[in-house]
Design goal:
Layout (H helix, E strand, L loop, with lengths): L5 E6 L5 E9 L2 H6 L11 E6 L3 E2 L8 E6 L5 E8 L6 E2 L6 E6 L14 E4 L1
């Protein structure tokens, strides 16, 4: 089970923020596994996988919403409702990390390419 000890904040527009409680996967075995074999994170929670530009959903039991970030924590790509069994989902050439959440609760239509994320421990 992951410990959601970080906060990721996205500026959606001039007045709205999206705040996500995040667990950080920084070790190799955590990054390779991601949410595989874990229950879906509760609404408002997600897993931030560091040093990761692509993911697969082989073996997953639930669909994911994915938000790929570059090294400056800017959104490079958003993928909604990625079903289990996908072999490869790429975040783009600049993707350096990915935020994995259970599909359906992130306001992905408001998370545009280039949106800045700030992580607080």
């Amino acid at each position: 089970m992951f410990r959601y000890t970080h906060t990721l904040t996205f500026q959606l527009d001039d007045t709205r923020l999206l705040v996500v409680a995040a667990a950080r996967a920084s070790w190799v075995h955590q990054r390779m596994r991601g949410l595989l074999f874990h229950p879906a994170p509760p609404k408002g929670h997600a897993l931030l996988i560091e040093r990761c530009g692509s993911v697969h959903t082989l073996g997953m039991r639930y669909p994911l919403d994915l938000v790929f970030l570059d090294r400056d924590r800017r959104v490079t790509r958003v993928c909604a409702d990625v079903r289990p069994g996908r072999l490869f989902v790429h975040g783009g050439a600049r993707a350096a990390s990915v935020l994995e959440a259970a599909a359906g609760w992130l306001p992905l239509a408001l998370l545009h390419k280039g949106a800045q994320a700030v992580i607080q421990p």
